[in-house]
Automatic annotation (TrEMBL):
It catalyses: S-formylglutathione + H2O = formate + glutathione + H(+). Transmembrane segments: none annotated. Gene3D superfamilies: alpha/beta hydrolase (3.40.50.1820). Its EC number is 3.1.2.12. The keyword Transmembrane does not apply. This is S-formylglutathione hydrolase. PANTHER family: S-FORMYLGLUTATHIONE HYDROLASE (PTHR10061), S-FORMYLGLUTATHIONE HYDROLASE YEIG (PTHR10061:SF1). It comes from Pseudidiomarina salinarum. Serine hydrolase involved in the detoxification of formaldehyde.
């Protein structure tokens, strides 16, 4: 992987890399925050999955996560949201909710998407193995995300018990098979395969598996997408029915934006730190 840029932040380093992805068949950029502790010893990581229209830049520049990550000694791994490049097909109508910037963290099975749109395998396997080989990371990890990225984080944590110590999400698409965004994306990337759709729906996964890692969700009550797209209550009810001690918190007056994320990202990182035993230690 090649370093594109690096700046000092909170005594650590905010870095952008690019690399050739064999999983996505294209060149990808991603960002990393290394806390100052990484200059002395390996540190745990929180993977952050962004939402529709984002690149790795949105979270890096808008969430204000670096101050608390530096304090806790946690690295932040911030991928892009879809494959990129001229060879990668995009939504024919230029829609913001499908194609580039909208990979939905699935492994597409349908042409022409399947050659590049393999974001589930990219995040769970290829990027993880790359950064944990090349960077001073301890191999202990948690995962978080926003909206489409919250959906991705929940699904990856639920489907891979033990891989992530904890999972959190801001305004996640909790029940994508019942959401217009999710239905559109799943139809395009997965076709009619009902089993594949179930495997990418956090609410259905909880009903099926009756288990989850430590889980925190924050959802703003003034979020324009809440009623139609997000299915927060379905996730909450599935957790209650399964006896899962998840925190699903409604945050009064907050919307869907990065101002909401910036308001609570510190609490999310502290939540993850409790489950990442290596933090701050040799
Ligand atoms: N452009 C669209 C909405 C796009 C949007 O709100 N994107 C969110 C994520 S939504 C779910 O995945 C986002 O993170 N945007 C980037 C940012 O920096 O705010 C519309 O206008 O409806």
């Amino acid at each position: 992987m090649n370093k594109i840029s690096a700046v000092k932040a909170f005594a650590g380093e905010q870095i952008q890399y690019e690399h050739q992805s064999d999983t996505l068949n294209c060149t990808m950029k991603f960002s990393v925050f290394l806390p100052p502790q990484a200059q002395q010893h390996r540190v745990p990581a929180v993977y952050w999955l962004s939402g529709l229209t984002c690149t790795d830049d949105n979270f890096s520049t808008k969430a204000g996560a670096q101050r608390v990550a530096a304090e806790l000694g946690i690295a932040l791994i911030i991928p892009d949201t879809s494959p990129r490049g001229e060879d990668v097909p995009d939504d024919p109508d230029g829609a913001y909710d499908f194609g580039k910037g909208a990979g939905f963290y699935v492994n597409a099975t349908q042409a022409p998407w399947s050659r590049h749109y393999q974001m589930y395998d990219y995040i769970v396997t290829e990027l993880r193995e790359l950064v944990e080989r090349e960077l001073p990371l301890s191999g202990e990890r948690s995962i978080s995300g926003h909206s489409m990225g919250g959906h991705g984080a929940l699904v990856m944590a639920l489907r891979n018990p033990g891989l992530y110590r904890s999972v959190s999400a801001f305004a996640p698409i909790c029940h994508p098979t019942e959401s217009p965004w999710g239905r559109k994306a799943f139809s395009g990337y997965l076709g009619d395969d009902k089993a594949a759709r179930t495997d990418y729906d956090a609410t259905l996964l909880i009903k099926e598996r009756q288990a989850a890692p430590p889980l925190l969700v924050d959802q703003g009550t003034a979020d324009n997408f809440l009623a139609e797209q997000l299915g927060t209550d379905a996730l909450k009810q599935a957790c209650i029915a399964a006896g899962i001690d998840a925190q699903v918190r409604m945050q009064e007056g907050y919307d869907h934006s990065y101002y909401f994320i910036a308001s609570f990202i510190g609490e999310h990182l502290r939540f993850h730190a409790k489950h990442l035993s290596y933090f701050g230690k040799k």
